[in-house]
Specification:
The structure is a homotrimer. Chain A has about 270 residues and is α+β, with helices and mostly antiparallel strands. In chain A, α1 runs parallel beside α4. The longest helix of chain A has 14 residues. Chains in contact: A-B, A-C, B-C. Chains A and B meet through β1, β2 and α2 of A and α1 of B.
């Protein structure tokens, strides 16, 4: 992608918004690559929650222009043997620790190249053991934005050997599916691991019965306001194309007392 | 405003900061209009709270340069018959659902033109039913920033027929005014619907007696630090020119146990 | 620094993220200095907490490019006699109220010049008494970004007379040090006032005994993941070079029940 525009860097961390950690990473970036467009994905990933970061990256990266550099620092292993890496796909770059945060990217995108960020010429001169976001990851992203070839950043890595989390997915059962809550969003919508390939069946075919935390859901709507009332949970297609459970003008997670990872039983034709 | 600079887009949503929804809208924008300056107004509007978003937009838009495009997505009706719209004034553009979020703008600014965002050429190619911020509103704002004329975005609408919320305002009473808390800010300041036209009277004329949630307030100061002590609520002119109730180094909303919409009785000469 | 690039402004406030106050300041800035890079340090400084803002500014400013303008508005004295000021160092500009928020800068950087922001030509035409961030500080930062010389902004001030907070620092005791928690970060890490000059001794010399809130800490690690277990607090070098107390995958502040300012006793060779 040497000739692609690389003017945009996204940032995704668990650094929170009370400290200046994110601002410091941006300061490092604009010092190396002035004029770069910096876009926050989120900095409120729960501390050390690699799986949530992986999901957010998965569902957002397709909406960025080609050449975008995605900088993801959820890094409980900072300072340990886990490698800082950069990966390129035909459309984008990903700079992150090799801890599974790129699991969905590795599973769904062709990987052009992967490197360890081992070349000290592209680190900050002084390095801490507790903030590689500032000292290693932000400089790498910025140097990519400034046009440095990926291969310059360090030793090549075999993409097949990069860390992958076990990804949730629905399991076939006698009478339907056993699925899971992949993500709970700001509105309390429960986004399940029933993805675009199976969502149409659930949302437009024979009405299924969905049971979650002992509550049975049999309604489904095309959009939130189609629900005739507040307070009754229903199925809807989330903006990621996954099946979600929502409540009109309310918070389904709070109503149902459900957390990330909770199982759902989906059955067909039995209610 | 065809020749005006349109390099700035503001964003105001209830999407929160834990997800990447706002980042995704920005990705869509920079894909269409690279180099646009993106400024967040707030993404912590309470979910579905159109009135709060309307107030924030009202009090902030005058401080942006001419040609700014204000993108406001608080949209509980996403996917329903409510129209996505764009409106131009002599100074700015507003892109939002037609659900009342532009009520103050429609009430206080000359409307040059209004359109429904009905032209699919300016939508994302794939559209969800649950995230028009990404699929319709962000692309519209970005195309405006890129110089597309407003009229290209869709069918013209009659400004007089756009949705308006009932706006709070003080009511004249026998011995004074009945007013309301319009907004509670981050500091816990209670901003009332007694606006600039009446604020001078309250803040510099004969001292009024203000009663709110059974607490009587008779002090007023020009600025917070003029209050001689913490813990005693007083009247002050908010930065919007409205009368506010504040506490020095404290949170008036918490102290007074008051929520948005709470009534105040304002009387003159009776204490 | 007349010839230095001044294209970056950082923002640090206690304005929170629920209102549009920060967005309004940015609107004012881009109206005066379009194209400026705007980087948030934090807007979740606890209301009126000047010391926390001072610490965040201290630990982040070195990572920004030369010529950066740091705009810090934690300003409980807004409207009072406290002066709005701008200060230049060989590397940067600082625009803030004269209330101690620049204490670390004044203590550690050579001050080239300081002025009161007294020249009304560089204020907004209309001024409130409650939001100088918008009316005075943001315009000053923007005019600096646009190339206005510091001396134009107002009357010169004697740097030695600017407000300084008493800064925490460890006190020598018979058998060691009495230190303090300077800052608690988003992860719950306790950052102490034992700075880089003494950190090496604590972290690599004879193991000290640290007591905080009746808990004794004798472990120290180079990075979080080096700790063999969750739940046991240990010493580590924070990214600022200060000694910190942390818990692997946990929140040390919550575990230890400690707040900012809490004392630590550090002793050598007695456990």
């Amino acid at each position: 992608m040497a000739t692609t525009d690389r003017s945009c860097i996204t940032l995704l961390t668990d650094f929170g918004l009370t400290d200046a950690y994110v601002g410091v990473m941006k300061g490092v970036i604009v010092g190396i690559a002035p004029g770069t467009t910096l876009i926050d994905l989120s900095h409120l990933v729960p501390p050390q929650d690699i799986a949530t970061a992986a999901w957010l990256l998965h569902t957002s990266h397709p909406y960025f222009p080609p050449g975008t550099i995605h900088l993801c620092v959820v890094d409980p292993g900072v300072g340990s043997a886990r490698l800082p890496i950069a990966v390129s796909t035909p459309r984008a770059f990903f700079v992150a620790p090799d801890n599974g945060v790129l699991s969905y990217i590795l599973a769904s995108e062709p990987i052009v190249a992967a490197v360890a960020l081992s070349n000290p010429a592209y680190h900050l001169p002084q390095q801490s053991t507790t903030f590689h976001g500032r000292d290693i990851f932000a400089p790498a992203a910025a140097h990519l934005a400034a046009g440095v070839p990926l291969a310059e950043l360090g030793e090549p890595l075999e993409p097949a050997r990069l860390e992958r989390l076990p990804l949730y997915g629905p399991e076939l059962q006698a009478n339907g599916l056993r699925a899971h809550v992949l993500h709970i969003d700001h509105f309390g919508n429960l986004i399940t691991d029933v993805g675009p390939d199976r969502a149409a069946e659930l949302l437009t075919g024979v009405t299924p019965t969905v049971t979650i935390n002992n509550v049975t859901i049999t309604r489904r709507y095309r959009y939130y306001a189609e629900a005739p009332e507040d307070g009754t949970p229903f199925l809807v297609a989330d903006s990621s194309g996954h099946v979600a459970i929502a409540v009109r003008n309310g918070n389904a997670a709070a109503l149902l007392g459900v957390k990330r990872g909770a199982p759902l039983a989906i059955s067909y034709g039995t209610h």
